[in-house]
Amino acid sequence: MSKALRRGKKEDIQTSKIREPATAKTAMKVAKTETVKRASTKQKDTLASREEVNRLVVEVSESILEEFDLKNLFTVQDIRDIVENTIRDYVESGKKIEAKSLIKRFEIYRDELYKFLASKIISENRELNNEIIEFIVYRAPEIAGKATPLLYKASIGAPHIIASLRELWERYGNPTLLRCPRCMFKSLTPDFYCLVCGATPGEAEIKTIMRFEDELRYAASQWHSNLIIEALNSGYVYYDGEIKPPSLVKNRTGVLFHLSTKEKNILREILNK
Hints:
Elements: H1 3-67, H2 76-93, H3 99-108, H4 110-123, H5 130-139, H6 141-146, H7 148-153, H8 159-172, H9 203-209, H10 212-220, H11 225-234, E1 236-239, E2 243-244, E3 255-258, H12 261-272
Helix pairs in contact: 1-2, 1-3, 5-8, 10-12, 11-12
């Protein structure tokens, strides 16, 4: 092999060695550029996705408020969270997101939406007016029943609302054995405190509204004479849905009523028959 040929090959090898680092460096630079581009594209897609979600949230919220006749009571911000959560559920499950399908979903579950809004009003201690209270009473009755004490105080002067609350309290609230003579809710505790209106009526007032004398006369007429004597000697009876002498009440459950002179005379009359 000639010296010139050997020299040429040597130069080619040296040139190759020189170019290899440059090629690798270029490749790294290109790869880095592509990574940045992909990251930038992904960021733009994320921003676009967020913008799309926000647009849908507003569009769907406005449509719901309009269609469910809630525009005068609530704003987009009031239902934003529940709408946005529903949209994200669609995204995670791979469902196609369309405003119409989302609105239809809320039509199907509108009772849940009403409960959500009613609970939001109460938990945030919002100012209550008759229109808001009527919304809670008629569209979220279970929430209204549980929140009766709060709603009652804001409904003074609106007898139709109070009448509905009275029914809902007994269905969904915490009704007691005794009716309060002031507000007429079944909301008196054994120590005669009203859970709804906060009144503390006296024993005589409570006896009047429950027709205590008539109840006593009927109950005692069914007792053995020993039970009548027991009630007379103890000077009190219990009420747990009906009037009973102390020995017939397990664990002293019920409401204790002291017997007046007139009531004791009723028992004596029955005993002497």
